[in-house]
Amino acid sequence: MLSRTLRSGAALTELGFGAAQLGNLYRPTGDEEARAAVDAAWDAGIRYFDTAPHYGLGLSERRLGDALRDRPRDEFVLSTKVGRLLVPSGYPEGTMDDGGFAVPATLRREWDFSRDGVRRSVEASLERLGLDRIDIAYLHDPDDHGEQAHAEAIPALVELRDEGVVGAIGAGMNQSAMPAEFVARHDVDVIMLAGRYTLLEQGALDDLLPLALERGVGIVAAAVYNSGLLSKPRPAADATYDYGPAPADVLARANAIADVCEEFGLSLPDAAVAFPLRHPAVVSVVVGMRTADQVAGTVDRYGVAIPEEFWLALSERGLVRDA
Fold first, then answer.
1. Which pLDDT score is estimated for 35?
2. 107 in a domain, yes or no?
3. Is residue 157 part of a domain?
């Protein structure tokens, strides 16, 4: 599998393993099933793995660390995130997490983008992962904490990078405007951009992507299926977009793109995985994978050869914007 290198020197495979599902996203996943998914990803050549404390109240980090611990440490890149500390919940026994993960709520998330909070978060993640270092540390969804993120969190990550505790730093968000500010104002290495540079929408071309290319900052494209809308050859009438019902105009555009896919013997998910990698700032596409079968299917999509004529047809019909 091909890799692209950050300015920090970390080589990210073009397809990355998103480990939210290992934290029991929406439904339980067994330990063996989770381990099999990571093993299948490794066997397929994937060497970039992304997790976060938020994912299952630390369960994703623990499972991913367990699955990677015996692998050669210099052969994979691991990212996790800061901004949500995990603290004892005090909830009654049997209470389940209300953050979208099927896990007991023995812990709760506490927003903290302070210098101390960032350092404590990284220390706790290293303990859960059982690894000696974190290759990439992202601020996780600092949308409502911009002032503290600029004043404390990014400088704290710079300190940790200077100390060698983390290899590269950045932010992971579902918008492009604030990450563009981080790139403009700070010495960050990489941005994880969820849903804002996909086959369906290219708003990040207006701010983040040109700036990232100018500054040598890598972009990791996540949520490339736009919360499921592009995950099947034909979007369902009740498909979701940005985790809500898809508006009629968005659904119509997705179907129009699917029409072009069919003309070229391709599928919507094939094109969704391939599209972000066409931009020179993008270093990896991260896809959430729960099982070994999902890994195999995603790797197959990544491997589909897509002719340049297909992209030209989409552009000529006004269905995608040129980079």
1. 98
2. yes
3. yes
Nearest Cα neighbor of 136 from 219, 62, 55 is 219
Q: In the prediction, which pLDDT does 322 show?
A: 77
Q: Which residues of 81-98 are buried (b: 16+ CB within 10 A; e: fewer)?
A: bbbbbbeebeeeeeeebe
Please choose, from the candidates 238, 260, 274, the residue with its C-alpha nearest in 3D space to the C-alpha of residue 318. 260
Domain assignment of residue 136, yes or no? yes
Amino acid at 254: A
Predicted confidence at residue 164, as pLDDT, reads 96
CA distances from 311 to 41, 251, 276, 317 (A): 28, 20, 12, 10
pLDDT digits (tens, 9 = 90+) for 90-114: 999 999 999 999 999 999 999 999 9
**221 contacts 197 by C-beta, under 8 angstroms:** yes
Range of the structural domain that residue 279 is part of: 3-231+268-316
Residues 265-291: what's their mean pLDDT?
A: 98
Token readout for 145 is 């904490």
Residue of 208, 213, 215 lying closest to 193 (CA atoms): 208
The CATH number of the domain holding residue 56 is: 3.20.20.100
In a domain, 180, yes or no: yes
The predicted pLDDT at position 309 comes to 97
Residues in Cβ contact with 319 at an 8 Å cutoff, skipping those fewer than 6 apart: 253, 256, 257, 260
Report pLDDT digits (tens) over 9-18.
999 999 999 9
Active site residues: 55
Measured CA to CA in angstroms, residue 47 lies from 40, 51, 71, 80, 182 at distances of: 11, 13, 10, 14, 26
Q: How many CA atoms lie within 13 A of 7 on its CB side?
A: 16
